Every structure is written in C-alpha cells, then in structure tokens.
Amino acid sequence: MDAMSPFELDATLHQPIRTRIAAFLIARGEATFTELKKELAITDGNLESHIKKLRASGYLSKEKKMGASKRAQTVYSLTRDGQESFENYLETLKRILAVKF
Amino acid sequence: MQDHAANQIEQIHSMLATGHRSVRLEKHTLIIWGLTAAFLILSVNAIFTPKLIPGIWPRALASNLFIATVVIFAAYWDFRLTRQQREQNDETLSFIQLQLTKVWWSLVGLIVLINLGMNFFGGGYLFYPIMIALTGLGFYIHGLFSQQLLTWNGTLMVLIGLTCLILQMPLKSMEWLTIILAGIGLPVLAWLIDLPIIQQKLRFRMLASLLWLSLIILPTWLIHQAHYRAPTPDWPTMTLQDYQLQKRATPDKYVLQIPAGTDIPLELNIRGETLTTQQQITIPLTLKRPLDLTVKQSKPDGRYRFEQGKWLHPLRKYRFREYQLAPELNHKDGIKLKMGFIIETLER
Q1: Do B5 and A96 touch (CB under 8 A)?
Q2: Is residue A45 included in any domain, yes or no?
Q3: Does A11 fall in a domain?
Q4: Residue extents of the structural domains in chain B
Q5: Nearest alpha carbon to residue B37 among B118, B143, B122, B127
Q6: A28 vs B96: CB contact, 8 Å cut-off?
Q7: Which phi and psi (to 5°) does residue B325 adopt?
Q8: Residue A5: inside a domain, yes or no?
Q9: Residue of chain A whose alpha carbon sits nearest to that of B2
C-alpha cells in the first residue's frame, strides 16, 4: 500500500500476476493449473508461488474433480471472499483513476 | 500511482476478455458435425425412397428416426472426444462451454424437428436456408465466447441462408450448397480456426473468411451450372399448327413453337380420403405467351423457353402459390367447392 495514499489497495491482489489470475478466474469461473500457466505464460514455480499466496489469503479454492476417464483434475476457482476482494480492488483502482493529482 | 492503476485496469480488462473468450471449439467437433450433416443429406433421400416405404407418413417417421439416431450418436461421440481431449491436456470444460453445448444441441434438435414438421405440413423449400441460417446463428453465438473467426463465418452462413431465399435458388442447388458447406466448409473451418496468424491479424481473418466463402460458393455454382445447363438446341422448328395438320414429315428432334392464345387442356385427377373425381376432368387453360418446347423422338424432352428467351432446364419447375379451397353453399347449386391458386414458373 502506498503510505501517502488515501486508497487502500489489497496487497494480495495488487500484484500484476495475481491480478491477472483473479481476473481470468472471474471471467471463466474455473481453470486448471495448465490452463492458468498457458494464459499467463509463466513458469510452473512462479505460478505455484502466486497460487500459494492467493490460497493463503483465502481467495482461491482448490478442488479435485473426477473426469470421464476417471482421472482426477485439480481445478482452481475464486472463493466468495476472493470475488468480493477483487470487486473492491477494482473499485479502488477506478477511484484512483478518477482523482486528479 | 495513476499510471500503475491504469496499467492494472488494462491487465484486468485483457484477462477478463481472455476468460470470456476461453471457449475453444475443437477441430473434431466441426469435422464430426460437418460430415454427419453431409452424410444425412446425401443418404436420407436415397435410402428412404417411396419404393422402400410407400406411405408418406411412415416414410417421414422412419427417415426422421434415422436422422435422430445418427445425430444422437454424433453428439455423444463429439462430447466424449471433447472431454477426453480436455482431460488429456489438463483443461476443463468451462461453465460457458457447457451452456454453449446446450445451445448447440437445442439448435440441432430444432433442425430435426423442423425437418419432421415439414414432412407433414409442407414448406420443404425453406429447409436448407433455415438449416444454414440456424447453424450460422450457432457459430455466431459460439464465436462471441471463442475464436472470433467463428462469429464472422457464422454471420456469413446466416447471409448465405438469406441469399438462397432472395435469389429463389432451386431446391437441388440449395441441397448441394448445404452438402458442400457441411462436408467441406466445416472441416476447412476446423483447420482455419486454430491457425495463429488468423487469430492475431484482422486482415488475415478477413482473407480467410473470403477464401472460405469462395470455397463453398464456387463448387455450388459449378454444380448448379452443370445441373441446370440447358444448351440452346440447334434443331429445326415446327409450329403446333403444322404439327397437328401434319403438313410435313416430323423430324426426330425439333423445336415446337406454340403461339400465345393456344388452348392447353389440363387433365385433372383428384384423389383423397373424403373427395375423389369419378372421371377425369379436363380444364381448358390458355397459354398467355409464346412457348417453345424441345421435342425428341415425339416426346417433349423438358427444355422450354418463353417469348424466344433463354432456354430453361426441366428441373426448373413450377411453384403453386396462394392456394385456396373453400366450400360454398347456395339454394341453386347446393354445395360446391371453389379452388384457386397461382402457378408461378421459375425462370431464373
């Protein structure tokens, strides 16, 4: 957060890759690790660390789903808390842009 | 700080758009459905002939049952392949994709129902344009959440369907157009949609759409020309009067000239569950404009022209419009039926 700023930005979401993960999941609903990696074009380790941070904040849920071929798939989606935080974060960004410095 | 916020909002918009457009139409989906549609159009009329099943209703039911079975099999096969492919690539079928699949199945079901209904209630001429336009609508909707090329080609398909009607294309040509669109157009589209250059550059998307359109229109036009070609016969002419008076020997092949005002009797035979003709009825009709017919071995071979115009193919038949049938009751005649319709000659 900017010490001089009157706007409080969510520290977890105010990071370009995590912002993109949240925005993608808001639009798509859910995605696998592979899909997220493909869309964000980042390494496995990088994505894993951002997923960990989002999960630690309670913004991201992880679910194992059984497919038609009985192969389990791990699917990520935003929690309700994550969705609300993303909306608040977006509102804050819009307010920042509306202010004339 | 504002710059950073603007940058973040831009990133969010970009990812929202990517997320919304993340539905991918698989290659095998287009190939399976394209080939299934082409196979059904080519096979149904060839299999379910009046010789095989004489009654109209049992024939319509049998053919539609066959269509429904093939369509259900194709839908199951496509869904299974799609799920398998997604799992192999560790990808999911998103919520939007599942909803779009339902839209597709509804559209396919609607096309089958329209076909069934037209067997019973008529209007078969409209079937192919409706089928093309509904498929185009499906692609347009799918493209809104997927590859942009699908939206473009969906729009083109809707326009193709409407153009068929505006140009009053003959049924057989529309049938070939649909076969080519399904059997060639959709597999080619399957190849085009995943080409990276087409997804990135607008001008390549436009070019791809135009090439795709010409790939469908050109073969259809060639088949139409071959099918409806009625070359001008270089045969001697003979008037109907000369023919009737047998003034000269009748050649093997000739053009029979029938002047306007000639009486042409129409022999009518009506059959039905409630009403029937006891004996053959002859209605006197009068030719309103000069007509030339080609005659081969004493029989009209089907080519004709009006007022020395372009020779027309026998398959360009007639259309009955504004058909009316109403009972009338009065003291003098008792009950009678009045019937009327317009016969439209298809000259294009």
Answers
A1: yes
A2: yes
A3: no
A4: 16-228, 237-345
A5: B127
A6: yes
A7: -145, 115
A8: no
A9: A97
Residue to test with chain B: of A17, A24, A76, A100, most B Cβ within 10 A: A24
- Residues recorded for chain A: 101
pLDDT at B334: 79
End-to-end CA distance of chain A: 17
B316: its two tokens: 């360009």
Name the residue in chain A with its Cα closest to that of B80: A68
Whether residue B307 has pLDDT greater than 50: yes
Q: Which of B281 and B133 is assigned the larger pLDDT?
A: B133
Bridge partners (DSSP) listed for residue B258? B291
Asked which of A24-28, B7-11, B157-161 is least confident by mean pLDDT, the reply is B7-11
Question: What residues of chain A lie within 8 A of the CB of B20, using their CB?
Answer: 27-28
- Nearest one of B249, B251, B281 to B267, comparing CA atoms: B281
Nearest Cβ partner for A67 among B6, B12, B87: B87
pLDDT digits (tens, 9 = 90+) for B39-57: 999 999 899 998 999 888 8
CATH number, domain at A47?
1.10.10.10
Q: Which residue of B has its CA nearest to A92?
A: B5
A 10 A CB-CB count for B19 gives 21
Which structural domain, as residue segments, surrounds residue A33? 16-92
A27–B15 C-beta distance less than 8 A: yes
Residue B310: Cβ within 10 Å count = 10
B343: left (phi over 0), alpha (psi -120 to 50) or beta: beta
For residue range B78-115, list pLDDT tens digits in order.
988 988 888 888 888 888 888 898 999 999 999 999 99
Question: SS3 for B216?
Answer: helix
| Cα B10 to Cα B317: distance, rounded to the nearest angstrom | 61
Count of structural domains, chain A: 1
Q: Note whether residue A7 is domain-resident.
A: no
Q: Is residue B250 within 8 Å of B298, Cβ to Cβ?
A: yes
* Residue linked to tokens 């977006």: A90
Cβ distance of B92 and A32 shorter than 8 Å: yes
ipTM higher than the 0.90 cut:
no
- Residue A89 phi/psi, 5-degree rounding, is -65, -45
pLDDT values of chain A reduced to their tens digit, one per residue, 101 residues: 444 456 788 889 999 999 999 999 998 888 999 999 988 999 999 999 999 999 999 999 999 887 666 677 889 999 999 999 999 999 999 888 876 55
pLDDT surpassing 60 at residue B245: yes
Per this entry, what is the length of chain B? Answer: 348
